[in-house]
Amino acid sequence: MTSVRGAHYVTGNKRSEVSLSTMWAKGRFAHMAGFASRAEELGFTHIEANHWISPQMLSELLATTVPISSIHAPCPAVLSSGGVPVANLSLSSLDENERMEAVSFTKQTIDLGSSVNARAIVIHMGEVPIDLGLQDRLHRLYAESHTQTKEYGRTKAELIRQRTSRVRPYLEGARKSLRELSEYGGQKGIMLGLETRFHLHEIPNVDEMAELLSEVPVALVGYWHDIGHAEVRQRLGFGSHEEWLSRFAHRMIGIHLHDVLDVSDHYAPGKGDVNWEMVAENLPPGIVKVCEIGQWNDEEQLEGVVSFLRKAGIIG
Fold first, then answer.
1. Which domain holds residue 174?
2. What total number of domains does the chain contain?
3. pTM
């Protein structure tokens, strides 16, 4: 395990706290100290360690004085026993060796989070194998303004049919992983946040989220809302963004803040057309707030983000 410094996340309900995910640092900073310094200059108070950073980058990040709010599992980015990135392992896999290895690396992230007193570990619960070309086609049809066509309807219906017919064993795998991880997180004194997912084949959808959360203690596992993911799902016709917020507000422990244009997300907040007023109205107090901004956003796009979020009522 990478050694860590002793800076601790300040707990409480400080509405002005807002983190910047290391997603934005990818390919932009030669050293994570430069990223941390720039994050502070831009008005961010904390950092979320993302699942793509290397062990060396993690060490550099933890050597700074900027506290870690949360960690997106699995972190850091290493290779599995099979030589693939650990982020490619699935907590819902029917291959028990893969599922167990995914659990193991998530536990290592929990260890890391506990050692730096992070408030939460963000996790993806897996996926269902379906024809991913159908999802690509749906996005293309949306971009071409063909959402009212028969082809769009047929493509959407086939996506739903495939997922519905195949999901149960994979959902059970996710459930099994979550039980083990929630117990481990409880032992380490850190909460898990189940994230809203972007693609239809990913677990959980809104009803599955309710299932999973109902089976684990409130003190151990919460809901992690992702604005861009919920918004894009709504635009493609897979449920309501506001339903995710309102249905799980009582379990929400954190949120990924980013904007959306068409069905592309991870834009800097204020640079897209998300209904931020609706989001602000549905946020409970005291949650972890992380700007998860894509690395393609230049520095000008991040100027004023914290001010925008304050004006929108997202932070105090």
1. 19-311
2. 1
3. 0.94
